[in-house]
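Sequence and structure are no longer studied apart. As an example, we show below a sequence and the tokens encoding its fold:
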Amino acid sequence: MTSGAPLVDRVVDAVTAIDGVAGLYAGGAGSPATYLPGRSVRGIRIGDDGGVVHVVAEARGGRPLTRTAERVRDIATEAAGVPMNVVIADVAYPEPDSGAYESKEWT
């Protein structure tokens, strides 16, 4: 298996569509990246035996970040066809008046 553009794009689209994920984490030196013809996709690397995706999670609604990470892992693994590890590399907080802090229920 190679981590060509269709595969990488499929995984990125699946991961970034998850409620609680603000996006991929581009990071700095040492962060995963996939180099494709004419572009690079930072925050993800997929190999023959597995891969890794670094995400920015959204802290809102009292949802534990571990649940978000588990969901990302499951969706990314399904989309990639190989086991994917997940790193929550950053956390985005909502604006204080957005109402996102009002829910205390963990679902």
User: Anything to note?
Assistant: The mean pLDDT is 88. Residues 65-80 form the longest helix (16 residues).
